[in-house]
């Protein structure tokens, strides 16, 4: 899960997916990162933390890190929140195989839409709830896809 700062959207997406995976027997590695280095080592934004806790998702232990080329080796899928993230991540892709791992998260729940998870950083609490709901829906599709791949 990748956004710009790795303190608002992507840590919450990571937490949502982790908590869904915990309720299955799927053995999947999940992580998040930011394309920028502004918030490396920092805790999630308190508004993201609150938004998660409201839904039983605890992201308090997560810390910001920056996306790097080695993430293409570590992960099969790289979900980005907006088109700016998409451009930044693609610019690090070494080949077509790397590039093919990258997609907008909301293309899972709204295929082909290229919809964005809006950056809630400069907005209010409602923005975080809105973002939570969008990412939650997309993460449900990830779980379904993983279960289908298994079967
Ligand atoms: P995020 O939100 O990309 O969802 O973590 C942001 C966090 C910090 C900044 C921008 C967006 N910033 O400019 O510091």
Would you write up a description of this structure?
- With 151 residues, the protein is mostly helical.
- The chain has one domain: 3-Layer(aba) Sandwich (Rossmann fold), CATH 3.40.50.2300.
- Helix content is 43%, strand content 7%.
- Strands 1-2 form a two-stranded parallel ribbon.
- β1, α1 and β2 form a beta-alpha-beta unit.
- The longest helix has 26 residues, at 125-150.
- It is globular and about 40 Å long.
- The protein starts with a strand and ends with a helix.
- Residues 3-9, 34, 38, 119, 121 line the site of 4-nitrophenyl phosphate.
What best-fitting shape do the alpha-carbon axes yield?
A: globular
| Strand segment count | 4
CATH class: Alpha Beta
Count of domain modules: 1
CATH-level-4 superfamily name: Response regulator
The CATH topology is Rossmann fold
Side-by-side strand order of the widest sheet? 1-2
Bound compounds: 4-nitrophenyl phosphate
Largest sheet: 2 strands, parallel
Distance between the termini: 25 Å
CATH architecture label name: 3-Layer(aba) Sandwich
The low-pLDDT segments are none
Secondary-structure-based class equals mainly alpha
Proportion of residues in β-strands: 5-15%
């Amino acid at each position: 899960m990748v956004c710009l700062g790795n303190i608002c959207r992507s840590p919450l997406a990571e937490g949502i997916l982790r908590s869904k995976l915990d309720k299955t027997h799927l053995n999947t590695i999940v992580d998040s990162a930011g394309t920028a280095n502004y918030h490396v080592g920092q805790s999630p934004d308190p508004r993201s933390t609150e938004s998660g806790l409201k839904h039983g998702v605890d992201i308090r232990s997560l810390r910001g890190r920056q996306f790097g080329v080695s993430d293409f080796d570590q992960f099969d899928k790289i979900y980005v929140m907006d088109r700016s993230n998409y451009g930044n991540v693609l610019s690090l892709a070494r080949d077509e195989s790397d590039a093919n791992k990258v997609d907008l998260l909301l293309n899972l729940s709204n295929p082909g839409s290229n919809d964005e998870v809006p950056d809630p950083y400069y907005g209010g609490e409602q923005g975080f709830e809105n973002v939570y709901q969008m990412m939650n829906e997309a993460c449900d599709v990830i779980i379904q896809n993983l279960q289908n791949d298994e079967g």
